[in-house]
Amino acid sequence: MGVAPPASAAVGHPTTPTSNSSPQGGGGARVSSPISPRRRSWVGVARPLSPRRRTTLAILSFLIPLLAWAAVSYVPFLWHPLVEVTEPGDIAWMEPGMRVPKAAFAEEVASAKTAGTAEPAGRPANPVYLPAPHEVATAFWTSLTAQPTQRDAIRLPLSLWHSIQIIAFGFLLSSLIGVPLGILCGAQPTLARLTEPVIEFVRYMPAPAFGALMVAILGIYDGPKIAIIVIGTFFQQVLVIANTTRRIEPLLIEAALTLGARNLRLIRRVIVPAMLPQLYRDQRILLGWAWTYLIVAELIGTSSGITFFITQQARYQHFDNVYAAILIIGLVGSITDLALAWLGRRLFPYDRSEA
Amino acid sequence: MNSASPVVSPVVLPIEACDYRTQCEPVRARFDKLKSREVALRVEKLTKTFAKPDGGTTVALKDIDLVTHRREFLCVVGPSGCGKSTFVRILAGLETSTSGVVSVEGVPVSGPGADRGMVFQGYTLFPWLSVLRNVAFGLEENGTPRREAEREARQWLALIGLEAFADSYPHQLSGGMKQRVAIARALATRPRILLMDEPFSALDTQSRARMQAYLIEIWKKIDITIVFITHDLDEAVHLADRILVLSAHPGEVAELIEVPVPRPRSHNQALTPEFRATRARLDALIHPPKDEAEESVAPDVVTRMTSAGDEVE
Predict the structure, then answer these.
(1) pLDDT average, residue stretch A69-96
(2) Cα pseudo-dihedral B121, B125, B131, B132, rounded to 10
(3) What pTM value is reported for the model?
(4) Residue A98: domain span
(5) Mean pLDDT within A20-49
(6) Residue A328 CA from chain centroid, whole number
(7) Rounded distance, CA B118 to CA B134, Å?
């Protein structure tokens, strides 16, 4: 398609090519191509960026949303649909700190002007559910260090610790059965066919749907919460790990067979080590999924952990604390993942695929 | 390069007055000695058919008969698709035959076993084990305690000259070194037969020549029968006592050639009449002349798109 259509006269006969013969051609004219030679492609085989660029871009990826948030919070003409009352004047229903829609405020100002009573004063404000960055930062720090003001409230670190325990316990329990079963399914087609179809079926049932059932069986405390994490993780885990097992280089297994490795020893000495780097990556991803089930799990029975903290603070309209708690979940998750990635590179130096 | 004269001479033997079947005295004596040794590997009426997705069957191997004697070096060659890989995988027990019997020293083969070592085309060292532990792997799997297995593995590493790399990991080795370790690993369990499926085809020309020399040295020092699959005909003539030539569709024995090139072999022998005669015979068996004529490129196939006076040739 890209080449000039062969002129019928050219077949078999040396002729000068169509119209555009460039003058600088030595022995014969250069054939020019109709395609423009310089077209940059932004997409291609992904090459690693330079370390400096990587760091800069990583910082930017956090900075851009943060700047957007700060802009909306601090630049008064950006959004700010409400007015925060600083001085109610003679308006009976207004109180300092109250957030009023702009239109309603303007109406009251106008009517106060005509009536000659004291005008209310206020400044543009965002809704209470969007606190400014510095408010969240302060809340973040105080919720980590100080005792909360409400009597029945639990300190954030304590509720977080409870959540981490639920996750760890649920994930461990799921892995204890899910990992060996996944490996066996991947290594043994008969077993795979016997278990995987039903697991595939159950996988599509949302874990939270089992909530009421789990409460009936396991009571209202930590039992059902752990069960939700297990249900949410286990079925995915078996399928993901079975697939990872199936992707092992078959030559490695064949080599081991010719060397006399059999059955469980083959699994222990070849299949598991061969898949270990990928298994480790799978577990990291699955752990991330377990976190997503946490919030729902903690709402079941008696609300507990970080979710209890979040719902309670939201009820008091302490949205800065809510954001702080959500950020902490993100932080704990990311830090765990980074630590596990670092550990993985240490554990599997022979594994060259990107962690 | 000019294809104006089609090469369709029915007799493809070279001009030299040398038949690949003529053996000089030392070579004949060698073959007599070889054949007087006990049978190491016997293949009888080996057939392998594959089911095609449309319900039909493909015959990959048909009625292969073969007898090799202890300490023979057998090469298997054939056009692509002749089933030479399938053949060696059946010998290794990694695939089952449809019918026929494979027996090693009189014992029928069922499944992979330590009496047959295998070296694969790709790199199959276990990346999570050190070189030493890789070589010790087979011994440990067959019940040797770890310490003893490692001591023995060290001796094998000494044999292939890689003692210094005992504690290295496979990803730190070059391709040739990896295949040397793979050979040592396959030999460590003391198999009767070493099966090699194009083991050097991933290597560059120099490393391959060096590996061939290594292999011959190992073969001379160890009581082992080698079945070596290759698509490199020079390699086959250089290494083999006998060459099993398979034809394609179905894979049948075309000929079992006794290589008349005397031992010890060197790469200088590539110019000797025996070598060239054998090589020519292999060429004739594997690339029948008519195929070549079909594939040749006629000059007017490609339309000219350059201007006159700008010729490159």
Answers:
(1) 89
(2) -110
(3) 0.80
(4) 81-127
(5) 70
(6) 14
(7) 14
Which of A148, A136, A154 lies closest to A330 in space, CA to CA?
A136
Whether residues A102 and A228 share a domain: the answer is no
Number of domains observed in the structure of chain A: 2
**Whether A198 and A330 share a structural domain:** yes
- Using CB atoms within 10 A of its CB, is residue B54 exposed (0-12), middle (13-18) or buried (19+)? exposed
Is the pLDDT score of A7 beyond 50?
A: no
Partners of residue A273 in chain B, C-beta under 8 Å: 126, 128-129
Comparing CB atoms, the residue among B116, B128, B304 nearest residue A258 is: B116
- Same domain for A112 and A247? no
B111, B186, B308 member nearest A14 (Cβ): B308
Residues A111 and A228 in one domain: no
How far apart, in whole angstroms, are the C-alpha atoms of residue B43 and residue B59? 17
Nearest to B278 by CA among B226, B240, B229: B240
Burial of A334-345, coded b for 16+ CB within 10 Å and e otherwise, reads eebeeebeeebe
What's the token pair of residue B42?
A: 């016997």
Contact A27 B310 (CB under 8 A): yes
Which residue in B120, B94, B116 sits closest to B103, CA to CA? Answer: B116
For the residues of A238-281, what is the DSSP string, one character each?
HHHHHHHHHTS-HHHHHHHHHTT--HHHHIIIIIHHHHHHHHHH
The tens digit of pLDDT for each residue in A107-166 reads 988 998 898 888 888 889 999 899 999 999 999 998 888 776 666 667 888 888 999 999
The distance of B12 to chain A (nearest Cα, Å) reads 35
Q: HSE (CB half, 13 Å, CA atoms) of A81?
A: 5
Taken in order A247, A251, A257, A259, the sign of the CA dihedral is negative
Q: Which residues of A touch B118 (CB under 8 A)?
A: 254-255, 258
Last residue of a domain, one of A101, A127, A153: A127
Nearest CB partner across the interface for A350, out of B114, B169, B307: B169
For residue A154, give the 3-state DSSP assignment: coil
Q: Going by C-beta distance under 8 Å and a sequence separation of 6 or more, which residues neighbour residue B183?
A: B119, B160, B194, B199, B214, B215, B218
Domain assignment of residue A160, yes or no:
yes
- Note whether B141 contacts A: Cβ–Cβ < 8 A: yes
Reported as a single tens digit per residue, the pLDDT across B258-276 is 999 999 998 889 889 999 9
SS3 label, residue A31: strand
